[in-house]
What does this fold into?
Amino acid sequence: MADELDPLIHVPARLRIVATLAALEDGDALSFTRLQTMIGLTPGNLITHLRKLEDAGYVGAVKSGNGAASRTDVALTARGRVAFATYSASLRELLAD
Amino acid sequence: MSEWFDTFSAPKPAPDPYEEAAAEPATPEIDEELDPRAAAAILAQTTERAERELDRRPTFLMLVAAGVVLIVYGALWISVRHQHPYSGPTGWALGVLYGTLAVWIAFYLAVRTRATSGVSGRAMRQGRFEGLTFATVWVFVYVFQGALHHAGASDAIAYGIYPAAAPLLIIGGAAAVHQAARQNWPWAGFALGAVVLGGLASYAGPRAVWGIVGVGLFVLLIARAAQTWLTRR
It folds into this structure.
């Protein structure tokens, strides 16, 4: 039954990333630094998981500013929001059975 | 000598951690086996924490607002309750009003800044414009009070019923429409409650209106805070 859950999200670190980004209002993004603080992952770990989510089109990263003022914001894409909603619904169904 | 200058020169800005992490070799990923129950626990815990940390109007803020309303309207009511003829809130009550308001604004901005740190995007920008619009409306509600006085309205109207009830009717009405358009029913209900309160309290006269609005707003804020708390349990 657990096979029905999206394997891209069904990993502790990625589940935490997606759930945190889903708490933002639609259209908002979170800085990499704040996301790292909230999730408690090392930068290397976080970026590894973010890359997987980006490759799947679930997360988008936008870089702004130049040099020392540069910052990267990450947000769930529309596809990512749908995937997260589907994952949450599947998980609820699975546990209700 | 150069060390001395280094001590007082601006600290070197930290580079973007995303860029730094991206430049490092990829960390080997450990895809742990995850039991659905454990996943549900992580999901609930993370969602609860994220919503709490990103919440711009947390429950405790509503409780503090309820206290502020009671102090401010209570002081205004105490200052006018035995006035015959009515002349409006006295200096000490206005001091309580402006002092409490200044502390409240500083507290609100600190809570909001903490919640929105690192957050950017369309909804954030929209929120800033909405805040600016409501602040402008709020200021001009009181500018209009000057026009009422200038046009010869009695003190009971210009310094009693209007300043106590009009903000609830005007700002509450605008907020009710705005929240209903966003289908944010709890806040739409709260704003509509403020409109009804303002409309009915204005019949109580220039003295009692302050007390009724204060107690009414206090009850509305406590009810809204309780509703938020119960929803998140």
Q: What stands out?
A: The CA atoms of residues 22 and 81 of chain A lie 7 Å apart. The radius of gyration of chain A is 14 Å. The beta strands of chain A are 28-31, 59-64, 71-76. Chain A touches chain B through 50 residues (CB under 8 Å).
